[in-house]
Specification:
By secondary structure, the chain is mainly alpha-helical. It contains 15 helices and four strands.
């Protein structure tokens, strides 16, 4: 009997091994590490270099704490809310906490479900971390944490279900390959609501607010660029040609958008800036994200040009016309870029533009209608929920720091630490 049990275990293991695609699993685990690398240290370095020296630690703290908080929410109920069995197309049904229904043998297609859980968790982490750029240098730490918790439950998890988890937009045929709506649009809309609600930093827009450490920002930008290959390429959920094409078009769009932004600055201001080049690169990455699994090189090239022009002028309008202090340009880069990418997906998915094709019987205008409908729904839901959450939290704990704390800097005011102890040199 003992030997029969061993034989049964051996053949069961062999069967599982045949079902498991180790190449796909290895690629997705690599992609998972790349996406987490985008947040820590990539986005953390990119953002912290852009703020004043007295606020550098607060930005790093926000990114690190958001990573930890979202992880806890994800294993408690977030994964189920996003990818559980749909309830009316609005949200997934919540199962046992701590992923206790998931075992080492649980599979999603031909790779372990645990890999899928961790891969999607990294997307859930970077989305609220993007919002940090809108409220740097003037937000209280505790209300920020409370807002992120509530926002994940009411915005991110449901929207992820709508688009990726079998929800109503998924059924409608809405296309968002890697997060133009789920990540960039939700983060961008929330950013502009947060910036408008808090009001501008002291001195905005009159005082110059240059980055305190531009090389750190460039280093972070490079990390984002590399990590984005996992972000978009990993969203193919396979180690195949679709993943390779997603990586190729991602790189093309980022490069073209960076050059476009640089050219605009060169013409308008007489000199190209390093900050402009890296911001243009991020704009290209954000804009190609929803389209990366559906378009070819030609589409990526044009999307990169649109990203460079569209996001550049969006930043100018925000700061100079509307005087909204979205400190690190989250809305004009991620929000505008993500929304443009979602609409352009309908056009450049078509085979006539070198794309991989639309669904049978669906034309460009049909897909554009679906993209527009879904994007407007996500914008409205995100905007309303974000504003209501800020108002509610602000009734109990002031969301904005005092003027004295803003002058001293959040590193000291919130954490009693300094980013640079230059006196010890």
């Amino acid at each position: 009997m003992k030997y029969l049990s061993l034989i049964f275990i051996f053949f069961t293991a062999q069967l599982c091994a045949q079902e498991l695609d180790t190449g796909t699993n290895a690629w997705l685990m690599t992609a998972t590490a790349l996406v987490l690398f985008m947040t820590l240290p990539g986005l953390a370095a990119f953002y912290s270099g852009l703020v004043a020296q007295r606020n550098v630690l607060s930005v790093l703290m926000h990114c690190f704490v958001i990573c930890c908080v979202v992880t806890v929410l994800w294993i408690l109920f977030g994964y189920d809310m996003a990818f559980g069995s749909t309830i009316g197309g609005l949200v997934g049904s919540v199962g046992p906490a701590f992923l206790s229904s998931v075992s080492i043998d649980s599979m999603t297609g031909d790779f372990p479900e645990t890999t899928f859980i961790m891969f999607q968790l990294t997307f859930a982490i970077i989305t609220p971390a993007l919002i940090v750029g809108a409220f740097v240098e003037r937000v209280n730490f505790a209300p920020m944490v409370l807002f992120i918790i509530a926002w994940m439950i009411l915005v991110y998890f449901p929207v992820a279900h709508w688009v990726w988890g079998g929800g109503w937009l998924f059924e409608l045929g809405y296309r968002d390959f890697a997060g133009g709506a789920v990540v960039h649009t939700t983060a961008g809309i929330t950013a502009v609501v947060f910036a408008k609600y808090l009001g501008p930093r002291r001195g905005f827009p009159r005082a110059s607010m240059p980055p305190h450490n531009l090389p750190l920002t460039v280093l972070g930008a490079g990390m984002l660029w590399v990590g984005w290959f996992g972000f978009n390429g990993g969203s193919a959920l396979a180690a195949n040609g679709a993943a390779s094409m997603a990586i190729l078009v991602t790189h093309i769009s980022a490069s073209v958008a960076a050059l476009t932004w640089m050219a605009i600055e060169w013409v308008k201001f007489g000199k190209p800036s390093v900050l402009g080049v890296v911001t243009g690169m991020v704009a290209g990455l954000a804009t190609i994200t929803p389209a990366s699994g559906f378009v070819g090189p030609l589409g990526a090239f044009i999307i990169g040009i649109v990203a460079g022009f569209g996001c550049f002028y969006a930043t100018q309008l925000m700061k100079k016309r509307y005087l909204i202090d979205d400190s690190l340009d989250v809305f004009p880069v991620h929000g505008v870029g993500g929304m443009m990418g979602l609409l352009l997906t309908a056009v450049f998915s078509s085979e006539q533009f070198g794309g991989l094709g639309l669904d049978e019987g669906v034309g460009i205008l049909d897909q554009l209608g679906v993209q527009l409908q879904g994007t407007i729904a996500i914008i409205l839901w995100t905007l309303i929920v974000s504003y209501v959450l800020l108002r509610l939290i602000d009734k109990f704990i002031p969301v904005r720091v005092s003027e004295q704390d803003e002058v001293v800097g959040l590193d000291i005011a919130m954490h009693d630490e300094k980013g640079y102890n230059l006196d010890n040199l």
